[in-house]
Design the sequence.
């Protein structure tokens, strides 16, 4: 039996959008209140307070009404002034992409760029800032999803703070699955969303802004207002006594509330451990069958996405088509420079379970074998199972 492209896959194990938790889906179907009903205003403030607890911030994060690309572009537009020099750290497609927004608003964009299977060396940032004291803003992608690699943003954040610059962090596909927070990385603006590791559909951005970040935004005459890109408009909207800049996505707030409740109930360390174990089981299976992980080193491989290098002579597109048609499993392609070179398995939210890692390894290995690759699927699955068994005792 093969699965038709016109039908939904049996399992979506992609790097995003990810499947949503059942509790979130049920919450999306609950009553949609009028946004100025006192019950909704109080509810919105309560959800914002939960998000504050999850992010570990001093004040509630902004809840912007669009998936995190909105939050990232708004961060660039709001924090970067026309006379600013910006250093963008590019270790992958998404990190490189933020530079295009930064260049739109800055006087000058400078970059440190490394191969897209590598991570930024924090010491290179220290040296660059010492030689370029005019840099006012630094931007970095924590988890560059098209490569499945992680940057050490805590080390980078400390260096940026010591240099007197402000840091913008893209933590869209890492927060909620990895031990990372706005405070620990000293971010002026920290952008994430509930549509990855928190297990919601793509719809909202969560944006944490530090006191220094707000001071810079308020002093920036070009920071947008009365705009979809405005952070200023939403600064106090979490309070039940304040007006919304425009109609919030009421149903999506219901879903976010359910996701935050799940996260708080499970506990952050348990959530992080679940994501890490799933990724480790998957990588044991992938390497056990004779394939290579895209990341240059294990220590920079993400706990929320495993990127698998394609064997010589095999393009990723037919492999993805085969995993879906043969096994009903949807996996992710690369993006831009990594397109065709790798296949990505997402471990986020509800799919951050070791059992799904076994399914992903089986589907990927089986598809590659069907396309003529020299892989030992049985050995890979045995290695994955052995790793899982050892981890649980």
Sequence:
């Amino acid at each position: 039996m093969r699965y038709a492209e016109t039908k939904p896959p049996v399992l979506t194990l992609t790097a995003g959008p990810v499947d949503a938790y059942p509790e979130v889906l049920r919450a999306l179907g609950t009553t949609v209140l009028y946004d100025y009903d006192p019950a909704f205003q109080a509810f919105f403030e309560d959800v914002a307070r939960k998000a504050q607890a999850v992010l570990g911030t001093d004040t509630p994060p902004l809840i912007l009404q669009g998936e995190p690309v909105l939050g990232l572009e708004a961060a660039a537009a709001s924090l970067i002034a026309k006379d600013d020099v910006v250093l963008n750290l590019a270790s992958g497609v998404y990190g490189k992409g933020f530079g295009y927004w930064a260049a739109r608003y800055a006087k000058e964009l400078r970059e440190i760029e490394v191969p897209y299977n590598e991570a930024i060396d924090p010491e290179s940032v220290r040296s660059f800032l010492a030689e370029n004291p005019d840099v006012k803003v630094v931007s970095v992608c924590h988890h560059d999803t098209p490569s499945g690699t992680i940057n050490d943003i805590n080390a980078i954040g400390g260096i940026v703070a010591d240099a007197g610059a402000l840091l913008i962090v893209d933590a869209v596909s890492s927060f909620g699955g990895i031990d990372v927070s706005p405070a620990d990385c000293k971010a002026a603006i920290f952008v994430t969303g509930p549509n990855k590791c928190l297990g919601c559909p793509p719809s909202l951005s969560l944006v944490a802004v530090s006191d220094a970040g707000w001071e810079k935004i308020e002093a920036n005459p070009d920071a947008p207002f009365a705009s979809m890109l405005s952070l200023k408009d939403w600064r106090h909207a979490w309070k039940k006594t304040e007006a919304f800049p425009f109609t919030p996505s009421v149903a999506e707030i219901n879903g976010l509330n359910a996701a935050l409740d799940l996260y708080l109930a499970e506990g952050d360390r348990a959530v992080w451990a679940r994501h890490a174990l799933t990724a480790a089981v998957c990588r044991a299976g992938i390497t056990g069958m004779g394939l290579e992980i895209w990341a240059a080193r294990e220590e920079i491989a993400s706990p929320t996405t495993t990127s698998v290098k394609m064997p010589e002579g095999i393009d990723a597109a037919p492999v993805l088509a085969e995993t879906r048609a043969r096994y009903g499993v949807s996996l992710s392609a690369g993006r831009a420079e990594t397109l065709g070179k790798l296949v990505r398995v997402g471990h986020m939210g509800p799919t951050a379970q070791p059992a799904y890692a076994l399914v992903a390894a089986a589907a990927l290995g089986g598809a590659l074998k069907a396309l003529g690759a020299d892989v030992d699927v049985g050995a890979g699955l045995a290695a994955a199972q052995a790793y899982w068994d050892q981890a649980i005792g």
Observations:
- DSSP finds twelve helices and 15 strands in the chain.
- The two ends are 37 Å apart (CA to CA).
- The chain has two domains: 11-19+268-392, 31-264.
- Residues 268-288 form the longest helix (21 residues).
